[in-house]
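Field: COMPLEX_INPUT
Field: COMPONENT_COUNT = two
Field: RESIDUE_TOTAL = 670
Field: MODE = joint
Values follow.
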Amino acid sequence: MEGIADLLHGFGVVLSWTNFVYMLIGIMLGVIIGVLPGLGGANGIAILLPLTFSMPPTSAIILLSCIYWGALFGGAITSILFNIPGEPWSVATTFDGHPMAQKGQAGEALTAAFTSSFVGALFAVIVITLAAPLVAKFALQFGPAEKFSVFFLAFCSFVGMGKEPPSKTVAAMMLGFALAAVGTDTVTGGLRLTFGSTELLSGFDFLVAVIGLFGIGEILLTMEEGLSFKGKATGINPTVVWQTWKMLPRYWMTSLRSCVIGCWMGITPAGATPASFMSYGIAKRSSKDGEKFGTGEIEGVVAPETAAHAAGTSALLPMLALGVPGSPTAAVLLGGLLIWGLQPGPLLFVEQKDFVWGLIASMYLGNIVGLVIVLTMVPVFAAILRVPFAIVAPIILVICAIGAYTVHNNTFDVIMMLVFGVAGYFLKKCNYPLAPMVLAIVLGDKAEEAFRQSLLLSGGKVTVFWSSPLVSAIMALGLIALFWGGISKGLNRVFARRRAAPL
Amino acid sequence: MSDPSKAPGSPGPGQRIVEMGVALFILALGALAMIGSLRVGIGWGAEGPKSGFFPFWVGLIVVLASARNFWRAIAISPARLFAEWGQIAQVRKVVIPMAIYVALVPFFGIYVASALLIAGFMRWLGRYGWLLTLAVAILLPILIYVTFEDWFLVPLPKGPLEDWLGL
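Field: COMPLEX_OUTPUT
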């Protein structure tokens, strides 16, 4: 078993003192980031990324990925105690989590949420451990056409699977590609779309876009809603934790189903948010206590939290194995790999074993450490939310500005951050999805490169994307994903007719 | 949000007009991408597809999708609110100080500008006393200075105050 040996080697890498300290710092920072409005996994990592430029890549990815796990945990705290989802994927957790807190079962709800998060993440990490090396080995044979078809599939999934109208997803996504194209053409080295502006020579940096869209945009939305944080008290202690743990095995079926939904939605880049909603919906339909959902059922906390974490974690699989991130946060991490001088994609598993297996091992350890930290320190994190918004908001704005500045040591980026922030506010309010836009800004150059290389090899024939069974199959999957909205509607109609006929 | 209030004096901007504006704005950006691409060439050159080839088609898709979004936006009920005026005012309370802040950073450095932003927020929005306001507004930039310049060795933009202090 080569995989087990690699994994053990990875644990050896992680279990150095410095890396373990980075892991602790990462989790703590991550939970705080997940709790605070305006700071989430994606832009929290984007802000801290420039600070890791000088660190060894393995330590840097451990720090940043642990921030991600921490943020995933942190979202549950605000959802349950304050009825405010700290992250979009914890919206579904508020449905039953907050009613439980109102009934005085905050401790039970939190324990259930954290434990299910842990289970979901663990399931996804096991999937990554087993599947990622195989996917990477397979992807090693990919030429430019295959690479482009994978990008095509990823972006089509957003259009078909997203809950936003397809035309809005397409507009947001393609706008991202257009923004990515500004500046130097990576293939020829020539300039384009700068319109004579010297500031645009280096193009739009995705880190600045992420900090603006997710950070500033989120603050503006929070201001508009005029939130006052009135939280429920936490009563979490070892007895409550133990009592809840004894109850949880009863929901193993819900848990398992949510794990599978989460992993599936995370790998195909639908993301953690739809995964949590879908898992909640299915649990509600199939549970015998389904009609009590929404009034504080523990099962209604287990389902979305498991799925969100499974999705958030498994989003790293395609990022590592194919170089195609499954979520905005994974996209930021992928950007980090490029900055540290690592080439994401299948070769990573051959050339950077320390890095890949160190990261995978840190997923196991990070989630165990994370579970312990959140279970023991909830009151501390909840106290952060009680700091009034008038103090927290300017501090977050300043942190975002510093983050944007440090990307290129350029004050123009701070201006761009504000522009992206205001744009993010309007796009969000008009129901445009931001995730595909960010992914397009990150992947734009790579997708274009693969596209142009394929055309170059074929002498300009578009049929290159249908030239082999593999490419054709991935492209066909992409087209199915693209038109999934229409296809599923059609299938429903067919099934409905068939069901209606015999009656 | 969607309750059709017929009260005189609208309670806020309509979702319809905002969505139409956003669609047009994105459409304009798409058109801009197409124009820029045409300038560098969208055809086939010595090195394969020219620089403008990919962004041109991307821009075209943006324009087409935005046209569809604009068409859909027209169908939105005029009664649906984008936000109430009070909410817009709340958002303005962040955007305006932030715009001033961003404009100040190149001239006064990030530390002085941050101190002003925090102080302004706490006094204006939070109505805190001067003592607490000044304490947070002065201590936080110092903390940032120590963290970034001393610990991470990342220089942040500085202005006349830092020059005067000889930092």
